[in-house]
Structure formats: structure tokens, C-alpha cells
Amino acid sequence: MVEGQYRLAVIVGSVREGRFCPRVADWFIGRARQRADLVLDVVDLADTPLPPRGQATPVSGGRYESAAVRGFAERIGAADAFVVITPEYNHGYPGPLKIAIDSVNPEWHAKPVGFVSYGGISGGLRAVEQLRIVFAELHTVTIRETVSFHLAHSRFDADGNPLDLEVVNGAAKTLLDQLGWWASTLRAGRAARPYGG
Prior knowledge:
- The chain has five helices and five strands.
- It has helices spanning 21-33, 67-78, 95-103, 125-137, 165-192; strands at 6-12, 38-44, 81-87, 112-118, 141-149.
- α1 (21-33) links the parallel β1 and β2 (38-44).
């Protein structure tokens, strides 16, 4: 990582068989990879199995009991910022995403979180509003700007590209610009004065 860059973890939040999430994630990750101000880590929860009763409080010398949780905690702890890609299922977000979020705790503190959502008529925004409450409890700063895909299955072409490319690319740029500002600002703050959450 070079000076001026921040480490962004993109969390792919759906694990369902036949999930639509990779289509949305691939587009967003492609946008993020074009930027020089960040280093990307893609955390696909389908490839990151976590125990259903993850330990959110470190034990035994500041370590988590589960090896899977320890690995996840290291990736979350190394990140300066996060983007959560989430569908909306039954007016909420996926259960495995909640398990992942709850598996660790201090690694989230004093870092910014942005959202890319998709779903039916609401575009996943009901899931995002619930996630804002959860992440507030974890001492994060959530970014106002959100990228959302309403009626998502009809918003991508056969090659996996969004139909409203100019609009969504602009929304992704705004989200990443704001995320970068918060990431660098909060990283400097944590370095100057440890966060006491």
C-alpha cells in the first residue's frame, strides 16, 4: 500500500444458492479497482464460513476462540473502510451477514461503512436502513450516499453490466469519494488518539 491509499474491504453479503449478489458485486468491484486511492479486499461470505454463534468479544489474550472468526477479524481489523453489498430479503438483510457483523467487535470501531443494495421495488434500501442501526452500535460511521438497484434482475444486461451505467457509475464514484475522505480522516484520528469505544 502506498501513501494516500486506504484499505477497502468489500463484503459480499448474500450466500444463497443461485444468488444475484455476484452480479452486483462484480460491477462494483470493477469500479473500485479502477481507483488509485484504495487497496481492495473482497470478503465473500459464501467463501467465509463463520460459526452461527461467533464470539464478538475476544478471549484468551485478545484472540477469538474460533479460527474462522480470527481470520475474519484479521481482515476486518486490517481494513480502513467497508462497503457492504446486500440484498433485501423479506424487508431485511441476510442472516449470514448479521452473523458476520456480530462475529467481531472492536475491529469495526471508528471506521466508515458504505452500502450497495439491491432488491425489488425498494432497491434494498430497507435492508440498508436496518444495517445503519446495527453499525451505529459498532461505533462506525455510515456513509449517507448509497448505491441501490431497484427491480435488480431487470437492471443488468446479459453481460452483467448495469443498464443505467452512467447513473450508477456516478453513484459509485460519489460513494467511494466520501468513503475515502472518511477512511483517511478516521485513520488519522485513530493514529493520533486511540478510539475509546
